[in-house]
Every structure is written in structure tokens, then in C-alpha cells.
Amino acid sequence: MNAKEAEKELLGSYAADKNEILFSRFKINYNNELEIFKKGSVVFRDYEVVEPDPTAPRIQTEDAEQQEDTDQDGAEAEKSKTQQEKERKRRAKARITVQHVDIIRDEFWERRPWLLSNKPGKIPKEP
């Protein structure tokens, strides 16, 4: 079976159908596979993970982020050189990490708000 034929056969099937095909044809139980094979790999700058606030809105929109970056007159808030330097150093100290996690669910994004805000988070404490 070539790639086009495989794509045509799987077209319109659900996850349960694909799991059944994996098991019946190849004796592979999807639930027993390692996360790296189920979720793939995510590479990002790792700061201190935030515990999600259950009362907060789900995922912040760009409009809300833009409001945070403006002062009371509606003008863009400019960062001082000191603030810019501190932010640069925090970004440089963050470690690059590879994880095999589900990025579709909101929990991943809520625990790592810096990924959507483009602002560095807190540096994780060394164990």
C-alpha cells in the first residue's frame, strides 16, 4: 500500500478506527505506546510553570495582551533600557527543553503563559 492509498483508506475514520487498524494489522496497542510516539515533540524555552487559576478566563486573547501593553492614555508603554536588559537576561537564562506532551489541551498553555504572550516567565529554581 502506498501513501495515497493509505490516506484514502484512513480518510473519514475516527481515532478508535485507527487504533483498531493498528492492533488488528500490526498488533500495536496505541495506549501502550510512549508519549513521544503519540504526541510528538515540543521544543520551547522553559520558565517556571504556572499553576492555572480556575477562576481566570481560559486563554488570553491578543486584544487583552495589547491592553496590558498600553498605558492609561492608550499609548504603547515603552520599556526602559534597564527593563529591556532584564528581559533579555531572563530569556538567555531560560533553558531550552524538549517535551512530549499534549499541546492541544488548554492546560499546557495555561501553565506556560509566556509562550503566547511573548514575554519571558520566571526562571525555574534549581533543585
Describe the protein's topology.
Layout: H1 3-10, H2 15-26, H3 35-39, E1 42-46, H4 62-68, H5 81-93, E2 95-99, H6 106-111, H7 114-117
Antiparallel strand pairs: 1-2
What does this structure look like?
The chain is mainly alpha-helical and 127 residues long. It has 7 helices and 2 strands, in the order H-H-H-E-H-H-E-H-H. It has a two-stranded antiparallel ribbon.
List keywords for this structure.
mainly alpha, 7 helices, 43% helix, 8% strand
**Percentage of helical residues?**
40-55%
Elements, N to C (H/E): HHHEHHEHH
The termini sit apart by 50 Å
Low-pLDDT runs: 60-76
Count of separate DSSP helical elements = 7
Q: Main sheet?
A: 2 strands, antiparallel
Round the Cα radius of gyration to an integer and report it: 21 Å
Percentage of β-strand residues? 5-15%
The mean pLDDT is: 78
Question: Tell me, what's the shape?
Answer: elongated
Q: Which structural class should the secondary elements be placed in?
A: mainly alpha
Spatial ordering of strands, largest sheet:
1-2
Total DSSP E strands: 2
